[in-house]
Amino acid sequence: MVRTPLTPGERERGERFGVLLREARGGRSMVEVAAAAGVSAETLRKIETGRAPTPSFFTVAALAYALGLSLDELATACADPAEDEDEALSA
Predict the structure, then answer these.
(1) pLDDT for 80 beyond 80
(2) Predicted local distance difference test score (pLDDT) of residue 20
(3) Cα separation of 80 and 46, whole Å?
(4) What pLDDT shows up at residue 90?
């Protein structure tokens, strides 16, 4: 199966997600959070740096739980600001 290239918007969303995770992690080590979520520290590192901009739902859910974040918070924080503006203008 060939995966289609990510759009610039998808890459930006992945970067926003990574920043959010780093901020939520605060003073906790990457290894500590990764272990709590049941993922490898390398996986968390790739997500936080934007090298893995589209992690699986279960990885996202596990990280959210480990960091005390709701999936709603994550979805809102990672939404594309341009899409929000488009929706507001069309309403």
Answers:
(1) no
(2) 94
(3) 21
(4) 57
CA atoms of 47 and 34, how far apart (whole Å)? 11
User: Of 12, 30, 25, which is closest to residue 69 (Cα–Cα)?
Assistant: 25
Alpha-carbon distance of 84 to 80, in angstroms, equals 7
Structure token pair of residue 25: 């992690």
**Dihedral over Cα of 66, 70, 75, 78: its sign:** negative
Closest CA to 23 of 83, 77, 71, 62: 77
Angle (CA) 23 25 26, round 5°: 70
pLDDT at 57: 95
Contact present, 52 and 70 (Cβ < 8 Å): no
Per-residue pLDDT tens over the stretch 26-71: 999 999 999 999 999 999 999 999 999 899 999 999 999 999 999 9
To the nearest 5 percent, what fractions of the chain are helix, strand and coil? 70, 0, 30
